[in-house]
């Protein structure tokens, strides 16, 4: 056997088997399709991906997957199954697989999705790998796979705790830059007095206390990825300087005269509604449009509650190993009880709860009573909060009946509020970014007429100091607003 990484294909039918064989050949991988399963595979440590076809109607599928998991240990396992339902997917995910792909589907799409889980030789799988098989997570993976090979700037939005940092790292991992630096800058945690020095760097003696040269994060990122977390908290003066770097790909260190090049790919993230911040003059419109080249909304956990069993299973396994305790066993009602909560803190809150449960019940049993004892019935979703705030487990946007009910409810709320998105968001108790996402998905932009007074930038807006063109009667139709803090101009269309 050669030293090339191995890909194992078990019980795959054409054209999927042929597609994976061609994919492996292009990457110089060894491809094996053992007739007797993986028990006789002599080099499990060299396997970087295993793709298994199962019959979802047969009870032996889960046992076959457990056998594969025991043999291959750390190798990612991707399952292909025709006509598999939600309950069967949950059962399969409990066997320790990385992903479940429902068939029929395009062989090329299946191969591309499975390749996202490829394990680099010698690499251990990440504890924080993206987990989820629902519609919203599939769309998230498709968006990531589309933009990852490009150099384009990516803007990640979503509530606190949804995993925006994890998405940024995953884009970096599958981008072709995975062997280059990934530099994380938390714009909210760095003091305004030091963030400029941290980003741009400084020369020795450029300010009091600068006893040596600091290369800066732009320089440290090199040809890799620069992740600007909580970009919405960046002060206005630095917004202008960052805009220049994104436009010209050039900058100078503090106290320096040499113009340096910035070659890193930029991914920015925020839990703020940047469009509203632009309207309020707190965020530059031109910087927003520079960042919003490819926008990915990371969904809150309440929009894919069906993924909670897989998330919980993986979380308990990882936490038990990290805490070096025996994992608790799971009994009836545990996953259903977890799925009955809305998790306002999203995946971060879920993992905090799981860690507490592992600490309290390691080696014991986790069931519905242990969840209720910890969280209390008061944290269950209250009835009557509506479609926006209370999607049930397994209830997703593509379900036509529920989607139509939610569309009518949201349309009525927008009409009652005169299209005021902020007022409707307060009524339902959800962030405006989530509400805008719902408005877009349900095709209600016309109802939310006040959803945004900022539109896609025309040519004159790309230069922030240039006024808009006047109409025939001399009126431009746009109102200029000057930010009191940074002095920048933004323009809003007259209504």
Secondary structure layout:
Elements: E1 6-10, H1 16-26, E2 30-32, E3 47-54, H2 60-72, E4 77-82, H3 86-94, E5 99-103, H4 107-115, H5 135-147, E6 154-157, H6 164-173, E7 182-186, H7 192-200, H8 217-221, E8 225-229, H9 236-248, E9 250-251, E10 260-261, E11 265-270, H10 274-279, H11 285-291, E12 294-297, H12 308-323, E13 329-330, H13 334-339, H14 346-361, E14 365-366, H15 368-375, H16 386-389, H17 400-416, H18 421-428, H19 432-441, E15 478-482, E16 489-493
Helix pairs in contact: 1-4, 9-11, 12-14, 18-19
> How is the main sheet built?
5 strands, parallel
What is the end-to-end distance? 71 Å
> How many alpha or pi helices?
19
Which stretches are poorly predicted, pLDDT < 50 over at least 5 residues?
121-128, 377-402, 449-476, 484-495
Say how many strands there are.
Answer: 16
Helix content: 25-40%
Mind telling me the C-alpha Rg?
Answer: 25 Å
Instruction: Assign the CATH topology of the largest domain.
Output: Rossmann fold
CATH superfamily of the largest domain: P-loop containing nucleotide triphosphate hydrolases
Q: Tell me, briefly, the overall form.
A: globular
Tally of distinct domains: 5
Name the strands of the widest sheet in spatial order: 2-1-3-4-5
Main structural class: alpha/beta
Label the CATH architecture of the largest domain: 3-Layer(aba) Sandwich
Average per-residue pLDDT, rounded, comes to 76
CATH class of the largest domain, named: Alpha Beta
Share in β-strands: 5-15%
Can you tell me about this structure?
The protein is an alpha/beta fold. It folds into five domains: 6-125, Response regulator (Rossmann fold), CATH 3.40.50.2300; 142-297, Rossmann fold; 301-379, Helicase, Ruva Protein, domain 3; 386-441, no CATH class; 459-493, no CATH class. It contains 19 helices and 16 strands. Strands 2-1-3-4-5 form a five-stranded parallel sheet, with helices on both faces. A hairpin with an 8-residue loop joins strand 9 (250-251) and strand 10. Helix 12 (308-323) crosses helix 14 and helix 18 (421-428) crosses helix 19 (432-441). It is globular, with a radius of gyration of 25 Å. Mean pLDDT is 76; it is low at 121-128, 377-402, 449-476 and 484-495.
